[in-house]
Amino acid sequence: MQGEVETKRAARRNAILIMLLISMVLMFLLSIALGSVNIKLADVISILLGKDSASDAHQSIISKIRLPRAIASMAGGVCLALSGLLLQIFFSNPIVEPYVLGISSGATMFVSIVFLGGYTFGFSATNPMFMFIGALVGSMIVMLAVVLAARKVQNIVTLLVIGMMTGYLCSSIRSIMSSFASLESLGSLTLWTMGSFAGFTWQKVKILAIITSIFAVLAFLLSKPLNAMLLGEGYAQSMGVGIRRFRIAVIIIASVLTAVLTAFAGPISFVGLATPHMLRMGLKTADNRVLVPACVLGGALTTNLCDLLARTLLAPVELPIGAITSLFGAPLVIYMLLRRDSGL
């Protein structure tokens, strides 16, 4: 009887994963097809397959604008979803993610230093790798600060408030730096801090895709230790998990995934919180051997959808993607906090 139940559960999970994969592929194609100039799906597929049946204008739009943007938004969603999942297990609470804990704000502050510094010394475009390194330094510093704070406080609401205050502190420092910036650099920085996948070059896409792929694989390799940590550090140690090495690995992976996304697309909120939570509810499992691949698919799907909505809802005006993700994510945080306090 128990075997039959497990078989049905496994079949259901596999069906959901297949649906996520199909939905992700369809959303990828739609994000390329829809915009100020609509392109038929048949033409999109033809161009992606390297055929010459489509017009030169459509080929140029897809290869130079929409394809790199679609790939970047999918890779960014993977970064957000996986970093959110790792942090939720690390802090033993489903209401945390890089943006809520202020980690994205730390990355944003250091990228701002690199960004404004580049303009100060006469560089019209900052090197993508410098921006990534700046974001990584900022995210690591804030991540370590939050880890130390988590050891001092037990209440998750207090930890969230600390994360918010950290975010405000980083924002205030960024505002002070902006006061000394030129109008050109300030305008570019303001657009970047609103969050967007617009203007992605193939160089940035390549860096983002490579780093995301490597650290997604590393996150999957941590699936068993992550499962053991769900039952507490004592149980994990009894199963042979090196707690110190595990913590370092989670901090590095979550920080790198947050940094690379923030460096190129700006701070994007709530995807890292909402996606793992919805997948746990939908798949009805806490097994990270299932959740990590699901977060890859679900994160890519969610962010690609939000990016499509951001540029089509009020076209020709493009909304910041952070506005779309916050619209859905903020109510979810309120619901989860109320549910937690009510004991439901």
Report on the structure:
With 344 residues, the protein is mainly α. 78% of the residues lie in helices and 0% in strands. Helix 4 packs parallel to helix 6 (156-178). It is globular, with a radius of gyration of 21 Å.
Task: Determine the number of helices (DSSP H or I, runs of at least 4 residues).
Answer: 14
Overall shape: globular
Q: Specify the helix fraction band.
A: over 70%
Strand content: under 5%
From the alpha-carbon coordinates, what is the Rg to the nearest angstrom?
21 Å
End-to-end gap: 30 Å
Round the mean pLDDT to the nearest integer and report it. Answer: 85
Uncertain spans: 119-124
Number of strands: 0
Biggest sheet character: none
Write the H/E string, N to C.
HHHHHHHHHHHHHH
Helix/strand class? mainly alpha
